[in-house]
Specification:
CATH class of the largest domain: Alpha Beta
Largest sheet: 6 strands, mixed
Number of helices: 10
Helix content: 25-40%
Distance between the termini: 10 Å
Order of helices and strands: EHEHEEEHEEHEHEHEEHEHEHEH
Number of domains: 2
Strand order of the largest sheet: 8-7-6-9-11-10
Number of strands: 14
Shape: globular
CATH architecture of the largest domain: 3-Layer(aba) Sandwich
Strand content: 15-25%
Structural class: alpha/beta
Length: 288
């Protein structure tokens, strides 16, 4: 059942990367990579959509030959990492970046910021969270003496405060309150390092939704003919605009219900990410 699917926009963590280290973490299972490559070689471009920087998904892109544009940094950077072609780079205004970074540091919140090719932390905050997140990013951050000072001379695409659990996330939301008219905050998780919660702060108007619009412009393929796949509410930003939507069984029930609003034949829920549920999705839509 290929509903004239001409492109796919695909979330990464919780969809093709799970929590079974050595099976589908830190990288997708080989069977998933093979499927991605097969679909891409049929002329259906697959764009990964993630809050991660492009260098954290470079292996997936190279292994599956996904030679097209991808949404990274939560929409902050639209890029084809294979040829370093940056379609769009949305920098956070320096004054706004410094303000919110300072607020989180003052509250003793672990915080990172990202440029196109690196991510940065304050040396005094290095510790257990740093090591856990490095597993996800697949590289260690640049450590500097003062994150605020370094921010003054950096082109920042994303700021990421990290809450220690779901309850702590509310504290971070309150800290961000004074910046809500200047910046955008959404949240994500990674199954391997729960209960950590990742704040994704981008410039105004920047989101996975806007990233999907940029992908459609870059490829010339209508979102109506695009299959969107994700596992959390933040992914609904782009899936809502796609003609078809799917998720995996590890998504919560509210998100599954959202996916089903696409209607019969245009929505599907596959098995758990740790059972390579993405393959169920591809098979259901006749892509493999």
């Amino acid at each position: 059942m290929n509903q004239n699917i001409q492109a796919i926009i695909l979330d990464v963590d919780g969809v093709i990367v799970g929590e079974k280290i050595g099976f589908n973490s830190p990288h997708p299972h080989p069977d998933v990579i093979s499927a991605l490559k097969e679909i891409q070689n049929k002329g259906i471009p697959i764009s990964l959509c993630t809050a991660k920087p492009h260098f954290a998904i470079s292996k997936e892109i190279k292994d599956a030959d996904l030679d097209n544009v991808h949404i990274t940094d939560g929409g902050g950077v639209i890029i084809n990492p294979l040829d370093k072609d940056i379609v769009k780079q949305n920098n956070i205004p320096t004054e706004s970046a410094i303000k919110v970074i300072h607020a989180f540091l003052e509250a003793n919140v672990y915080v990172e910021f990202y440029t196109v090719d690196n991510y940065v932390i304050q040396k005094s905050q290095a510790g257990d969270i740093t090591k856990k997140h490095a597993h996800v990013i697949q590289s260690m951050p640049l450590q500097v003496e003062s994150l605020v000072d370094f921010a003054t001379k950096s082109k920042i695409t994303k700021i990421m405060p990290i809450a220690v659990n779901e309850a702590d996330k509310e504290n971070l939301n309150k800290i961000f309150e004074s910046s809500k008219n200047e910046l955008v905050l959404s949240w994500g998780v990674h199954p391997v390092i729960l209960p950590l919660q990742f704040g994704i702060i981008t410039a105004p108007g920047i989101s996975k939704k806007q990233g999907a619009i940029e992908i459609s412009k870059a490829t010339g393929i209508s979102l109506e003919n695009t299959l969107g796949v994700g596992d959390s509410e933040s992914d609904w930003q782009f899936i809502e605009m796609c003609g078809l939507g799917a998720t995996v069984d590890n998504a919560n029930q509210n998100f599954k219900d959202l996916i089903k609003t696409k209607g019969a034949g245009k929505s599907f829920v596959g098995a758990n990410v740790d059972e390579n549920g993405i393959l169920d999705i591809f098979k259901h839509f006749g892509l493999i």
